[in-house]
């Protein structure tokens, strides 16, 4: 008998919860999947998702081979086992690489010559969340089209079983992955590096990788502990950045590097302990890389600083930059399809395409690029390189709560509001609107280059708000006040994770 069609109304500790699949529809996000476990998805629900992935891949004519790994949370191994049961029921050859980072799973696709990937991770989300990052054509991951089709297959019970499933455990993938990163010339400059992992999965590998290229490593919370006793491993989290800052100043490090829970993002703190937003790190790297590769093309997400198009060094080097949708899958795909040298996302996902990388996001590849930049500038510190950038006043990424069922409708209304002001020639914070970018939510650019962004988070029940001004802190706060005033009119919009003081 076929696996029953999933339901969304099952409750833990009930008869039906133990015999039927539970899958909450909102877990299918724009480009990956996220659920609270087990309240929004149970193990049988994960069977259904695995079988749904197998069915989708078969529909697309992908050869029946897939890499599967899991991050370091107490329940991730169970989630992966349930997912693999569905994949095997669909007749797939499953290459299990065990405990892994997301970039390790992407690397394994190339190293094993395997087409598909399904990495069990909730990335930087709080404990209780689980999720899957999926791809059927390396180095790309799912976009909205694949996610919509997967959602339909799973929720409608349209999955198809097939014979021939095969399980292969790949025991040495961590060693292969680390070797691929450190099989390169050592740094000529001796760098002291704080490696912060927030007790997440990256802690098992960060010291090996950084020491492997010649760094002196000061480890910070690299011991694996799935309770995350200090803070969530999230390079955008100020608690993590503040902790790294203190350690950098304590030990006199050249740089602090922060890795998220599944190792595909990197955050940076300079030698003075200043926490650098990832988009500013991107500008620094783009300066360095465009000096080596003439007329370099870059892609950045709409949350990122305006310096990518105004920076005089990038202009002098002939670099060009395109703004695109926020989301690791979007930037990865757009960078790949448009042959950009690097894609930068403000959250810390960086995508180095050939000849610099394979095109997927890897926090360690980004960290090595930072180390190489410092190596090529032996007389300059990280602080020197940061201070060389034109000054802007920029907010952190602010995320007011908004339920998944409501967030897109709220953003649509905000878009309509600001588009109408632009069309009518009105002003915001005392300025005319120079440009409105609507590839992902809305980015409103004012006459002096001050801008504000409102979009729906792709993987959490939140909105995303970012503001920046190249002219003054007052103008940055002014555009935020206007945006906040608009959002306060919606009862669906709740508390911010952090909020700009105005």
Helix-strand blueprint:
Blueprint (H helix, E strand, L loop, with lengths): L32 E4 L6 H17 L5 E6 L5 H14 L3 E7 L2 H10 L4 E5 L8 E7 L8 H12 L10 E4 L3 H10 L9 E5 L9 H7 L3 E5 L17 H14 L3 E5 L6 E4 L5 E2 L1 H15 L4 E5 L5 H4 L1 H5 L3 E5 L3 H10 L4 E3 L5 E3 L10 H13 L6 H6 L5 E2 L9 H21 L2 E2 L2 E7 L4 E5 L4 E6 L6 E7 L3 H15 L15
Parallel strand pairs: 2-3, 2-4, 3-6, 7-8, 7-9, 12-13, 12-14
Antiparallel strand pairs: 1-5, 4-5, 9-10, 10-11, 14-15, 16-21, 17-18, 18-19, 19-20, 20-21
Describe this structure in words.
The protein is of the alpha/beta class and 502 residues long. Helix content is 34%, strand content 20%. The protein contains 15 helices and 21 strands. The strands form four sheets. Strands 1-5-4-2-3-6 form a six-stranded mixed sheet, sandwiched between helices. Strands 16-21-20-19-18-17 form a six-stranded antiparallel sheet, covered by helices on one side. A five-stranded mixed sheet has the order 8-7-9-10-11, sandwiched between helices. A hairpin with a 2-residue loop joins strand 17 and strand 18. Helix 3 crosses helix 5. The protein is globular and about 60 Å long.
């Amino acid at each position: 008998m076929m696996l029953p069609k999933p339901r969304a109304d099952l409750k833990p500790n009930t008869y039906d919860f133990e015999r039927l699949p539970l899958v909450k529809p909102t877990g299918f996000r724009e480009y990956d999947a996220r659920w609270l476990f087990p309240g929004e998805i149970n193990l049988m629900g994960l069977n259904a998702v695995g079988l749904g992935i197998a069915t989708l891949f078969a529909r697309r004519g992908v050869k029946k081979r897939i890499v599967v790994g899991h991050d370091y949370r107490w329940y991730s191994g169970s989630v992966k086992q349930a997912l693999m049961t569905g994949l095997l029921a669909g007749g797939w050859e499953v290459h299990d690489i065990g405990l892994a980072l997301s970039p390790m799973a992407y690397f394994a696709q190339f190293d094993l010559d395997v087409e598909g990937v399904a990495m069990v991770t909730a990335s930087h989300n709080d404990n209780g969340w689980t999720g899957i990052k999926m791809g059927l054509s390396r180095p790309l991951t799912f976009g909205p089209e694949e996610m919509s089709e997967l959602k339909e297959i799973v929720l409608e019970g349209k999955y198809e079983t097939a014979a021939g499933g095969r399980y292969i455990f790949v025991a040495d993938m961590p060693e292969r992955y680390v070797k691929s990163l450190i099989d390169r010339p050592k740094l000529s400059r001796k760098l002291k590096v704080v490696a912060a992992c927030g007790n997440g999965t990256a802690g098992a590998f960060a010291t090996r990788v950084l020491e492997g290229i010649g760094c002196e490593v000061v480890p910070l919370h690299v011991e694996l502990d799935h309770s995350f006793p200090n803070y969530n491993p999230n390079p955008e989290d100020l608690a993590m950045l503040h902790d790294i800052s203190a350690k950098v100043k304590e030990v006199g490090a050249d740089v602090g590097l922060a890795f998220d829970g599944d190792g595909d993002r990197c955050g940076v703190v300079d030698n003075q302990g200043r926490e650098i937003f990832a988009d500013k790190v991107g500008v620094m790297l783009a300066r360095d890389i465009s000096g080596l590769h003439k007329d370099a093309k870059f892609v950045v997400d709409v949350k990122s600083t305006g310096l990518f198009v105004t920076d005089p060094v990038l202009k002098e080097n002939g670099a060009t930059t395109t703004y695109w949708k926020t989301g690791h899958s979007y930037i990865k795909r757009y960078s790949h399809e448009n042959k950009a040298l690097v894609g930068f996302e403000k959250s810390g996902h960086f995508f180095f395409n050939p000849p610099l990388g394979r095109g997927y996001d890897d926090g360690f590849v980004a960290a090595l690029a930072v180390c190489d930049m410092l190596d090529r500038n032996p007389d300059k510190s990280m602080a020197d390189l940061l201070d060389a950038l034109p000054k802007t006043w920029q907010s952190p990424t602010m995320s007011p709560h908004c339920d998944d069922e409501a967030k897109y409708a709220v953003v649509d209304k905000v878009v309509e509001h600001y588009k109408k002001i632009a069309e009518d020639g009105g002003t915001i914070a005392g300025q005319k609107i120079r440009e409105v970018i609507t590839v992902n939510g809305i980015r409103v650019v004012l006459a002096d280059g001050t801008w504000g962004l409102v979009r729906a988070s792709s993987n959490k029940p939140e909105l995303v708000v970012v503001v920046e001004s190249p002219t003054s802190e007052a103008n940055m706060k002014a555009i935020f006040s206007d945006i906040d005033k608009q959002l306060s009119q919606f009862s669906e919009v709740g508390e911010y994770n952090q909020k700009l003081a105005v």
